Amino acid sequence: MVINRRTFFYEIYAETLGGELMQKDPVCGMMVDEKKTKLTSKHDDKTFYFCSASCKTTFDKDSHRYGHA
Ligand SMILES: [Zn+2]
Ligand SMILES: [Zn+2]
Predict the structure, then answer these.
(1) What is the pLDDT of residues 16-30, one digit of tens each?
(2) How many separate domains does the chain show?
(3) Ligand nearest to the CA of 64
(4) Residue ranges making up the domain that contains 61
(5) What is the pTM of this model?
């Protein structure tokens, strides 16, 4: 399956680059690997990454509040 192959590739890539791909979850402040999470939202042309579905839901409900941190 193509999707599984891409996921596998990204895991290798993320390991190679170490901490370069970490993004801050704007809701809880946790660092999230942007190539591993599928939980993303856009606000003001910026992409935000989330550690869990509940953080994404919180962001989506009030994205203007969290999307400028
Ligand atoms: Zn979170
Ligand atoms: Zn806004």
Answers:
(1) 555 457 899 999 999
(2) 1
(3) 2
(4) 2-66
(5) 0.69
